[in-house]
Amino acid sequence: MSGDDVPSDFTDTTYYRPFADDSLAETPASIMEKSEVTWDYPSNAWPWESEATIKYKVNISAVQAAGRYQNIITYVAIPSF
Amino acid sequence: MKLNKYIKLIALISVISLGYVLINRITKAQSVSLAITPPIYEILIAPGKEATQSYLLENNGNDTLISVRLVPFSSSDSYGNVKLDDSLNQEQQLALNWFSLEKPSIDFNEQLSLPGGSSIEYLLRISPYASAPEGDYYFTLLFETDSSGLGAGRGSAVETKIGSNILLTVSEDGNPLKIAKIHKFKAPKLIDSFGSLVYDVEITNDGTAFFKPQGDITVAPTFGGIQLLRLTPYNILASTKRVIPCFTDEAPVQCRFQKQFLFGIYKAKLRFQIDDIPRYYETETQTIAFPFVLILTIAIFFTALKVIQKISRKQKISKDNR
Fold it and tell me: CB–CB of A80 and B155 under 8 A?
């Protein structure tokens, strides 16, 4: 992850975080968070927005059977209360 | 001559075809961009009454199918983050029947098309039954894009969910039980003059309805003027506790006494009320600030100086004796 509001442990481009498995009811992995109102820093001009880029990495086991695989990546954005 | 013309024509067609193929090989990423206004809706309502709330959903990404549903949530930590609970208890199941969509004329979970660059208004009606039990109900109005197109050979699809929280209090007389408890009001007892004086505040809601603390921390130093640190009026849900920061310029910040050099006794008083209820919750703490590091540095310096002087004096005496 790189860009606005990404967690500080995404220190460089070699850092990856595994996705939570929804079918196992795992807690979603946080990729962007902010405790304040989002604004377009540093210009602070409307529209206020935070922008980040995500890079996926797939690790395929050497013993993985050949075939067609698919998944759905779900992004959830919910404000705090 | 004629053959040369043909070769030129074939070359031209090849270049155009190659260019077309290359241009069409550019891969476009999926663009996901949903925005919802307002992000939170707080409502106090009597059983048998009704209210409506308008939501504006904007799609700044690709064309998509959108559905909406209500999901109960609970507090996931002490910082106001939400944990969606897909399993409903009996009360939540009952409360779901109080919600309906007035606009657009669809049901929850029913999809509608939302082209990229467009927006749509949702009008949510809330009408608790006359027999609705009093209490708090917390839901997230969750808008979801469609991912059912997956399966035609694409490896990965993106689904987006964006939510807006609803804090609903059902009360017959409009005065639900609101009780606060100061869970934590902490500052260091002893601090170095060059350290920072930070106050930790955590408030528990022991009542049956959510509330916002309204108040401040007054810090009175031995020397210098009094400082007022305003508490952020964050919502604290029933039967939960929340870390309360201070705020300046509309942004939450650490509750910190703003001074570079601290010296003396700092008496701090936390005082707040719940919403507009004229009952105050108070507690105090005090911190002693002293320049320990500076004194220690000076002491080490003079001790070292004395030792050096002693050694050099001894050396001088032994030289004179020779």
Answer: no
Give the residue from B162, B211, B234, B244 with the most A CB atoms within 10 Å of its CB, the best one to mutate.
Answer: B162
Its ipTM equals 0.80
pTM, two decimals, is 0.81
Q: Say whether residue A70 is in contact with chain B using an 8 A CB cutoff.
A: yes
Query: What element of type H or E holds B14?
Result: helix B2-24
Chain B nearest CA to A37, separation (Å): 7
What is the percent of chain B with per-residue pLDDT over 70, rounded to a whole number? Answer: 87
Rg, chain B, Cα only: 33
Pick the residue from chain A with its C-alpha nearest to B235.
A81
Domain that holds residue A61: 1-81
Q: What is the pLDDT of residues B178-212, one digit of tens each?
A: 999 999 999 999 999 999 999 999 999 999 999 99
Distance CA B135, CA B201 (A): 26
Q: Is A71 on the interface with B (CB under 8 A)?
A: yes
Mean pLDDT by 10 residues, chain B (322 residues): 62 54 46 86 97 95 92 93 88 94 94 93 97 96 80 69 96 95 96 95 97 97 94 96 90 90 96 93 96 93 93 86 74
Measure CB to CB from residue A73 to each of B80, B158, B164 and give the nearest one: B158
A68 touches chain B (CB under 8 A): yes
Residues in CB range of B199: below 8 A, 6 or more apart: B185, B186, B187, B217, B229, B255, B256, B257, B268, B270, B285
Amino acid identity of residue B139, one-letter, is F
Domain count, chain A: 1
Distance CA B189, CA B187 (A): 6
Nearest CB among A37, A70, A80 relative to B79 is that of A80
Which of A56, A70, A81 is closest, CB to CB, to B154?
A: A70
pLDDT in tens, B128-141: 999 999 999 999 99
Contact A80 B80 (CB under 8 A): yes
